[in-house]
Amino acid sequence: MQEQYHSSVVEKEAQKIWREQDVYRVVEGAKNADGEEKPKYYACSMLPYPSGKLHMGHVRNYTINDVMTRQLRMRGYNVLMPMGWDAFGMPAENAAIKSKVPPAKWTYDNIAYMKKQMNSMGLAIDWSREMCACDPQYYRWNQWLFLKMLDKGIAYRKTQTVNWDPVDQTVLANEQVIEGRGWRSGALVEKREIPGYYLRITDYAEELLDYTQNHLEGWPERVRLMQENWIGRSEGVRFAFTHDIHDADDQLIQDGRMYVFTTRADTIMGVTFCAVAPEHPIATEAARRDKKVAAFIKEAIKGGTSEADLATKDKEGIATGLYVTHPITGQQIEVWVGNYVLMTYGDGAVMAVPGHDERDFAFALKYKLPIIQVVDINGQSYSDQEWQDWYGDKENGKLINSAQYDGLSSSEAIDKVAHFMVEKQLGEKKVTWRIRDWGISRQRYWGTPIPIIHCPDCGPVPVPEKALPVVLPEHLIPDGSGNPLNKCEEFLHTQCPSCGADARRETDTMDTFVDSSWYFMRYASANNNEAMVDERNNYWMPMDQYIGGIEHAVMHLLYARFWTKAMRDMGLLNYDEPFVKLLCQGMVLNHIYSRRNELGGIEYFAPSEVDNILDSKGNIIGAKLKADGSEIQYNGIGTMSKSKNNGIDPQQLIDQMGADTARLFVMFTSPPEQTLEWSGSGVDGSNRFLRRLWSYCFKHQEQIRQGQDNFDWSSAEGLDKAIRDLRLETHALLKQANYDYNRIQYNTVVSANMKLLNVLEATKLPEGDVANHAIRESVSIMLRMLYPVVPHITWYIWRELGFVDVYGDLLDAPWPEVDENALIADEVELVLQVNGKLRGAITIPNDADKEYIEATARAHEAVERFLDGRPIKRVIIVPGRLVNVVG
Ligand code: ANZ
Ligand code: ZN
What residues bind ATP, as annotated (predicted)? Predict the structure, then answer.
């Protein structure tokens, strides 16, 4: 063993041997040394987008995954940790526009580099199962399942509204529309209706919700809640306001029925107007009749009409001059167009009850529409000038101003109103869902081609299964003016599978969420070119532990769950949910520094470019640029990001201090689910710990080598106290680490080992064999406890010190066992009270009897001092806890 710790020597050597021996390859049904099948464990990180290089968030995510994988492997599990690439998507196209490199080349180059980085981190990845979304052998199965879904009616075609950039002649994704304009051209974006494909996730809404609420015990509560809200089940009443509004062709609009969905049918007597979405047929008719309405609608749908867009807009509207009939009172109610009404929810129309709905209240105040209170809660006084939260209370009120419904509770009134609607054949109780079918068509190049052929005679025809995959040409370079597939004759031109006529391929590609909906199954059925998934999928899945960012709490996870259920219903797999446990790792944060430049923009500085200015308590209050000493602003701490220039390049850290230091720092600094604050001194501290570990082992190598592993501690009599203490600490810390490994709290696993190293360094053991056995035992336990976090250094020392000869390679060495006998302390400390007040402590042998304890307590100097000469009346002993001397 070398005297000095050189991380690069150690890590290169370890990685070389691991690679040569292919140590991370796992096979289904692997057996242990006793010939028993090992239990399987599937631990997987969300697959990365190959953006170019790893960032700290990746490092954290994969290290958590790796620690788990290595520890469970030692504990006898057959553990799968795979990796792949979310290789389709827009950034590759944007890079192509900028640098004129085909997205394929850019993507493959990035993958090669990032893979190298992952290996330099020492991740226990089974690369034989690597998948890549842009590999035809992967995406052919997207196409294959899509065709199956079409067959079953789970996939269907309908027109969709898209953002159209009239200058670039291209469809824009929502995030490419900035303040209503195209991100590249700056042109005002228009809405266009074009056909696209949808997946019927709504058919699974009920089951998805049920499982969210009742089966995902291993998921964080907040993620379950987010999924629940996204699915959005709402119980209410759907009914019609009748009307006599005709369109230009004198057709009665929607057969004279304007349906609304309401969760508060009890407030029906408080309706003072109705509001429809700008896209509603009544709004369209009003626009035809009135230029002002037309102008309002044009403005209202600009930019976006998604829920997120609406949430940020002021509530605005315009009266249409058109009226509908109140089903109970028969009154004429005016219809308004409101920008807060969504066409895609319920029926795109609402009965407005400003008295009890906050949005309607704001709207009514703004446009001076009547507000009527129809629910009373304990006689509280109601003001139609200012909204109060109790106006919306559905649980505790009694109806007022509601004619025949007066005096009813809300739920009684809802039942009555629903009953009325049924009798009049105007409507009924109904469950409405917020979730929409999943539109998967993207008018972009870099994605899975949708396997459809357009024939002039037959229309859209599915590509026959045997003609799959429809391969995406990889040499095209998008230039920003639409999908380059539209100009690629060799791709476009084909024959109709049904009639043989000249036909044209679909150029839309699939949403990349399709790729990520089942890639984790492909790892388990890797390299099977005959089937999408096989029996190996049922072996590994459902995944035991999924690890990824909270930003995927809704869409990715929900789509993957839906996709799994759809595959199950096609008989392709035998489980209901893909992910048993989910861990969302916290963000990595760093300080942010900035300055306003002359042009009024903000310039951000990397933490390495500045010196902090501290107040007397050591808090950062400002900063100076190292370059010229000028003062800049300190903006606090925030997520590491390119835009704030506060990222730390993990590669630089790995190159300078080694992967083990980087891994130790990210595991030690915070529990996995919490935010992690970057700290240069924390990194140095982690590195120092590893050097101390190394040098302790170096200094004591002779003793460690001479110690025995199978020493029988139970028969050792008259053990030296220092040895007993060391064993007590070692086994107590092991016990704690076991507990923390199980609950994925790796930071305290590390601190336990820091403590153990302190103890080892501080302990003075007597000379002799038994002491050597004890040191050897502690070091062997410490190396194994630490190994999952810092695999290189521990593996190396393990080999150097000859532990390999006894336990085998560290990767598969048995996890150490707690010696419960060592945990029995031979002394205990009892709290000493005098007249019930805490006055000190006494230390007594573990097996001391009552007389001994009492005598020790009486003799304590505090007793005499606090009794002030009074005699002792009695001594109360609570075994194991305290002694109270009463005088
Ligand atoms: C009258 C009413 C009175 C309402 C009241 C609420 C409170 P959730 O719970 O999310 O399902 N609504 C219905 N369709 C809408 C649409 N397309 N766009 C915007 N809002 C719409 O919300 C249901 C409530 O949202 C419905 O109940 C309706 O307003 C409104 F004191 O009807 B309510
Ligand atoms: Zn045809």
Answer: 642
